Amino acid sequence: MKALVYHGAGKKLWEEKAPPQLIEPTDAIIRIVKTTICGTDLHILKGDVPTVEQGRTLGHEGIGIVESVGESVRNIKVGDKVIISCITVCGSCIHCKRQLYAHCKDGGWLLGHKIDGTQAEKVRIPHADNSLHRLPDDVDEEAALMLSDILPTGFEIGVINGRVQPGNTIALIGAGPVGLSALLASQFYSPAHIIMIDTDDNRLSVAQQLGANTIINPTRQDLAAIINKLTGGFGVDVAIECVGIPATFKICQDIIAAGGFIANVGVHGKSVDLHLENLWIKNITITTGLVNTSSTPMLLKSVQSGRIAPEKLVTHYYPLNEIETAYDVFNNAAQEKALKIVLSA
């Protein structure tokens, strides 16, 4: 089969690789129907995730058809169309019993990280019963693909951790796919005012179409003045960081109100300055996290009912065998006006 293989920082290749085999009785083999590229994949290629070994197949998102299952798999059967969760869940360890699936002792973030991932023609999924979600016939495949990672990430690590409540003024820093997912999911809680901050005017325009009340490009607008005017000088109730660089984390610290919540979603490859000397007296709560995907069943029902439409985040389409071209487009998202790219097998 063909797979996109990591060969060290800055190096990847679409190449032949042995197809995956069942190893444990709880495994399933999935034939990929659609997959996509995540900002985390770019972090891996920059060398920001040193735990990813050379020779690893990249990718942790996808939908596909079940081709075979281990003898202990009970809930998933051959022929099912499934959503592949970016988090592998054993369901029985101490962390799983607390719904901290990201820290599963025999799972967590494995795909494209510690085991071969989904940017391939086939993938092995450990703990298949807990790590796959059967896709209803009436749910669009592109919408379902967003449930692999970015929608639960934006919801759990941004919106839930940020304690978004009705009447809040919230700011999202970074209008990429995860930031826009957090924007969509935040509307479950009816915040009074949603601010989107980014340096890409195209992405800000998309954010406005998806529900942002105010958009700010800090390269040509006075961010502090606008926030002060909107909040009467108090700052925002919730700041959700969706980029993963020091500058965007600083913005969160600068605009947060007393008693507010800073929810960090972005993957940071470099250290940031934490201005605790200013924050401690303001009763600020800072949260971080890797998605647990515990919200995926609820989000799937919300998509099925039409309450949320994450397929609106898709901007580009490629066949799977053109994945290297798709990476070039995704890596130049501003110029290409790219958000999520759907790769179809």
UniProtKB/TrEMBL annotation:
<dbReference type="GO" id="GO:0016491">
    <property type="term" value="F:oxidoreductase activity"/>
</dbReference>
<dbReference type="Pfam" id="PF00107">
    <property type="entry name" value="ADH_zinc_N"/>
</dbReference>
<dbReference type="InterPro" id="IPR013154">
    <property type="entry name" value="ADH-like_N"/>
</dbReference>
<dbReference type="InterPro" id="IPR013149">
    <property type="entry name" value="ADH-like_C"/>
</dbReference>
<dbReference type="InterPro" id="IPR011032">
    <property type="entry name" value="GroES-like_sf"/>
</dbReference>
<feature type="domain" description="Alcohol dehydrogenase-like C-terminal">
    <location>
        <begin position="177"/>
        <end position="295"/>
    </location>
</feature>
<keyword id="KW-0862">Zinc</keyword>
<feature type="domain" description="Alcohol dehydrogenase-like N-terminal">
    <location>
        <begin position="25"/>
        <end position="137"/>
    </location>
</feature>
<protein>
    <submittedName>
        <fullName>Alcohol dehydrogenase</fullName>
    </submittedName>
</protein>
<keyword id="KW-0560">Oxidoreductase</keyword>
<dbReference type="InterPro" id="IPR036291">
    <property type="entry name" value="NAD(P)-bd_dom_sf"/>
</dbReference>
<dbReference type="GO" id="GO:0008270">
    <property type="term" value="F:zinc ion binding"/>
</dbReference>
<dbReference type="Pfam" id="PF08240">
    <property type="entry name" value="ADH_N"/>
</dbReference>
<comment type="similarity">
    <text>Belongs to the zinc-containing alcohol dehydrogenase family.</text>
</comment>
<keyword id="KW-0479">Metal-binding</keyword>
<dbReference type="InterPro" id="IPR002328">
    <property type="entry name" value="ADH_Zn_CS"/>
</dbReference>
